[in-house]
Structures are given as structure tokens and as C-alpha cells.
């Protein structure tokens, strides 16, 4: 089988004009006041240089152009009083503009690799710029200190400017900044404390490892225990940081050796890469979904036709009056199993294809009532009591009625499977705010056996099921439908008294 290749050079040549044009506009109007004051002609020159240098890195693995560009631009931006994070945001725009085009044009099997190539190039650029900016600013501070000793009085104004630049460089950047004396923290900025959920004075003199997840202790300890090599280029490492509320989050740290007061230190920039990791995860998920879609589409035709033929013949045989007793029962069992297989196939097709919504004004309370009525016989067979509590203040809003019914029925069927005979299922609706947006909440809870807490994070994953005859697609489809509406779903362990499933649907107008 031939291996597909991606022509980076052709890709960059075709998109150069449109991306540099959009890059220039966003720099001018969406980054900072400093960029807003620059002329469009100046921004055009810098974006084209940055684009060509980035292309050279990715296509030819040649860093000469980007190194030369960073040397020039760091001097200019430092002199003009730019903040470090403004220039970092400017470089980040390259990823925001190039990735959507990659997603459209890259072969699915190469998408993750291609996005990683962009991320690697951009990571090098930002790290190299941050390092260069640090070195130039460090040199500036040392030169300034020497001159200050000669004539303190005449440099008072310049000292204030230097303090402002220091604040801009260290205190106001979005990345965490710290100074390490071996493994001890000698200085941190506010961004570092914000990333870890601590106060500004708490980390001082503490071991850096106390802010690192145990999973990354060995790796980070090996790095900070090494002797400081002043000639080495800055190195970036990924690890899991530990927050005050015990969360472990993906992080990148960049080490830069320095020396003050006769002692060696490491100047470090710590960057939260949670979004980057999530983007890469979504890219892999998109690739997996595309494969599932292709596989399902190719198999559905091959499976559905034989199933229809078998089902039709079983129905014909079922009308034969000669069949009696176990023979007729066997026909009925076969028909029932064929129907179950058709249901599984429909779930697979629903999951594999993109969710298509038909919006109309819907009354959630009416939908809940009709779904409960539909399953009334199932409740009756198990002597289950279904209590309904509907919010009269829940107004009509735009949604897909059929898809909402699918969500509610899935929740009710899961509750039915969980409760024993004579159990209780409750269905509630209410208006709740999610991130400031009014949402219609639908909650289905039961007093059944519940779900193990270890299993809760996997409930909405495709093909994950605890049932012996389940496909693991019912709740995965529910999540897809909720996401397509701009909403979300969650499952709650009611602590030895059952389980609750909730869906939140925005009540504003949605563009389908």
C-alpha cells in the first residue's frame, strides 16, 4: 500500500497571500495597542517574513531565516516597549490561521502529524523569541546597573522606564516566570501563581517539585539536578504541573541559565499547554471518527440488505399456519433478534455521520410527557413509578424535536435498566444558567443500583458499555446531539441512591 505524502511547499505557496493578509489585519486590530499604532505596510513586511521563515522550518527544517527574523524583531519590539506576550500572541496567530486550512486539505492519516509539525515550529519560534528577549533584557539590566553606579541622579527617569519594562516582561506576561536556585524557587510572577492556584509569596524558597505531579517528578528532577550549562540553547520540556486543588495539567517549561551575585540560577518560563494538548486530541478523534464513518458506510449496505431479506422470509414463514409450538416460537425469536440488529445498525449510522439538526420551536415539557407516555408499558411491566416535575416557566425555544426525544428516551431506558421492580424514576425540567447563558435542563434520575465512580468518566465514550447486549453508542449519540445544539450532558452519582443524567440546552437562537 502506498504511503500518502503531503506537499508542504505547494500548500504554503497557495495560502501565502490569504494568510499573510489576514495575519496583518488581525495584528493591526485584535492584538494590542502597540500593534494598532503600526502601519499596515510595516505589518505586511513582518508577517510575510515570519510566514516565509516558518515555511522554511517546516518544509526544509531550516532555522536560519527564523533565527535571523527573531534577532531583528526582538530588538525592534524591545525598543518600542512591546510586551512579551503581545509578540507571543502575534506568533500564535500563525497557528490559528494555518490549522483550519490544514484540517481541510491534509489527508486524515497525516493530519495529526502535520498539525504537530506546525506546533513544533511555532514552539521553537516562541521559545527562541522568549529566550532572545530574556537575554537582551538581561543584558540591558546589567548595562544599566553599571551606568547607574556612575551617575545615579541622572538616570532616575531611565530607572522608572526599566522598572516598567521589567513589569511588562515578567509580571504581565501570560506565561509563568520563575527563578530557580538549584531546586528552590527564588522568584515567581503572578502568572505562575495563577497557574498553580497559590498566593504570590507561597512558592518562595519551596522546592519546585512540590508544584509538579508525582508522575513527572523523576523527569523534572533529572532536569533541574543537572549542572547549569551556560553555552547550551534553551530547552523546553513537557511535564504535568500540580495545582493547589490537586489537578494535574499538561505544562511546558523552558530553562535559561543565568548568573547573579556570584550564583548560578535557572530562569524559567512555564507555559500552560492544555489547549494545545486538547487540540491534538480532537484532531486524533476527528481522524478516528472519519475512519469509523467510512467503515460503517461500507458495511451498512452489505449488512442491511441480507437482514431485510432474512426478516422478510421470517415474516412469510411466520404466516404459515402449519408451524406450531416451539417452531413458531423460534421464528418469533429470530424476528426479534433481526429487529435488534437493525437497531444496532441504525445506532452505528447515527453515530458515524455528522448530526444534522432540523430546528423548530419546541416545548420541552410536552416532549418529556410524550416520551414518558411512550414508555408507559415498560414502566408498568416492572411496576416502576415515574414521577414528573416540569418547570412551568420553561418557554419554547429553537431545537430539533426528534433529537431531543432521542436524548430523553435514552436517559429513560438507562434508568429502566438500572432500577429493580417497584423502583422510582424521576424526570425534572428547569431553567438553569450555564456560563451566564439560560439553558433548558432535563434531568432523569433513578433509585437503582447506580454506576461505579471509576466508570463515570467513560459513560459518554463511544462503544463503552456495561451491558452484556449493549453497543455503547446510545449515550455517545446523546452527547453528540447535545453538543450539536451547543449544550452539554453529564452523569451524577447520587451516592448509593441511584444515578442522574442531565442535559443542558441553550435557549437562545442557534444557527444550524
Question: What are its keywords?
Answer:
single chain, 512 residues, alpha+beta, five-stranded antiparallel β-sheet, five-stranded mixed β-sheet, 15 helices, 17% strand
Word description of this protein:
This protein has 512 residues and is α+β, with helices and mostly antiparallel strands. It has helices at residues 8-30, 33-36, 40-60, 64-79, 84-105, 108-150, 156-171, 190-196, 217-224, 274-318, 325-352, 364-374, 376-381, 401-418, 474-484; strands spanning 176-181, 184-188, 235-242, 248-260, 263-272, 360-362, 385-389, 397-399, 424-434, 437-446, 488-493, 499-506. The strands form 3 sheets. Strands 2-1-5-4-3 form a 5-stranded antiparallel sheet. A 5-stranded mixed sheet has the order 7-9-10-12-11. The protein has a two-stranded antiparallel ribbon with strand order 6-8. The two termini are 40 Å apart. The model has no long low-confidence stretch (mean pLDDT 80).
Amino acid at each position: 500500500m502506498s504511503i500518502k505524502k503531503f506537499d508542504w511547499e505547494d500548500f504554503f505557496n497557495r495560502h501565502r497571500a490569504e494568510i499573510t493578509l489576514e495575519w496583518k489585519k488581525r495584528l493591526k486590530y485584535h492584538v494590542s495597542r502597540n500593534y494598532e499604532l503600526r502601519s499596515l505596510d510595516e505589518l505586511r513586511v513582518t508577517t510575510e517574513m515570519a510566514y516565509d521563515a516558518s515555511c522554511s522550518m517546516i518544509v526544509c527544517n531550516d532555522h536560519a531565516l527564523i533565527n535571523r527574523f527573531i534577532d531583528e524583531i526582538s530588538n525592534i519590539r524591545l525598543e518600542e516597549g512591546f510586551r512579551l506576550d503581545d509578540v507571543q500572541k502575534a506568533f500564535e496567530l500563525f497557528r490559528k490561521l494555518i490549522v483550519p486550512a490544514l484540517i481541510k486539505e491534509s489527508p486524515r492519516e497525516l493530519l495529526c502529524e502535520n498539525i504537530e509539525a506546525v506546533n513544533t515550529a511555532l514552539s521553537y519560534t516562541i521559545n527562541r523569541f522568549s529566550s532572545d528577549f530574556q537575554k537582551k533584557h538581561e543584558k540591558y539590566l546589567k548595562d544599566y546597573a553599571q551606568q547607574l553606579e556612575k551617575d545615579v541622579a541622572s538616570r532616575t527617569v531611565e530607572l522608572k522606564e526599566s522598572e516598567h519594562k521589567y513589569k511588562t516582561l515578567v509580571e504581565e506576561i501570560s506565561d509563568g516566570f520563575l527563578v530557580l536556585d538549584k531546586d528552590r524557587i527564588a522568584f515567581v510572577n503572578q502568572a505562575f501563581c495563577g497557574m498553580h492556584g497559590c498566593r504570590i509569596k507561597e512558592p518562595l524558597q519551596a522546592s519546585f517539585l512540590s508544584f509538579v505531579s508525582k508522575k513527572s517528578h523523576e523527569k523534572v528532577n533529572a532536569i533541574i539536578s543537572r549542572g547549569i550549562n551556560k553555552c547550551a540553547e534553551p530547552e523546553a520540556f513537557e511535564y504535568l504541573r500540580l495545582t493547589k486543588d490537586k489537578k494535574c495539567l499538561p505544562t511546558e517549561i523552558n530553562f535559561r541559565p543565568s548568573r547573579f551575585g556570584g550564583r548560578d540560577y535557572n530562569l524559567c518560563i512555564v507555559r500552560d499547554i492544555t489547549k494545545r494538548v486538547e487540540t491534538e486530541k480532537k484532531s486524533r478523534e476527528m481522524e478516528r471518527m472519519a475512519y469509523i464513518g467510512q467503515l460503517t458506510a461500507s458495511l451498512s449496505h452489505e449488512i442491511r440488505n441480507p437482514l431485510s431479506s432474512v426478516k422478510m422470509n421470517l415474516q412469510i414463514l411466520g404466516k404459515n399456519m402449519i408451524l406450531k409450538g416451539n417452531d413458531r416460537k423460534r421464528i418469533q425469536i429470530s424476528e426479534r433478534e433481526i429487529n435488534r440488529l437493525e437497531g444496532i445498525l441504525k445506532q452505528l449510522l447515527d453515530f458515524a455521520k455528522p448530526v444534522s439538526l432540523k430546528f423548530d420551536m419546541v416545548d420541552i415539557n410536552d416532549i418529556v410527557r410524550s416520551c414518558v407516555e411512550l414508555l408507559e408499558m415498560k414502566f408498568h411491566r416492572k411496576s416502576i413509578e415515574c414521577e414528573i416535575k416540569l418547570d412551568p416557566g420553561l418557554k419554547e425555544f429553537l431545537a430539533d424535536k426528534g433529537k431531543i426525544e432521542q436524548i430523553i428516551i435514552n436517559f429513560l431506558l438507562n434508568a429502566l435498566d438500572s432500577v429493580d421492580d417497584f423502583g422510582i424514576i424521576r424526570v425534572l425540567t428547569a431553567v438553569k444558567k450555564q456560563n451566564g447563558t439560560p439553558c433548558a435542563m432535563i434531568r432523569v434520575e433513578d433509585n437503582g443500583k447506580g454506576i461505579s465512580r471509576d466508570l463515570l468518566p467513560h459513560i459518554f465514550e463511544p462503544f463503552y458499555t456495561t451491558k452484556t447486549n449493549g453497543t455503547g453508542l446510545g449515550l455517545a449519540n446523546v452527547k453528540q446531539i447535545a453538543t450539536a445544539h451547543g449544550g452539554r450532558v453529564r452523569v451524577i452519582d447520587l451516592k448509593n441512591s441511584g444515578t442522574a443524567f442531565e442535559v443542558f440546552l441553550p435557549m437562545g437562537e442557534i444557527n444550524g
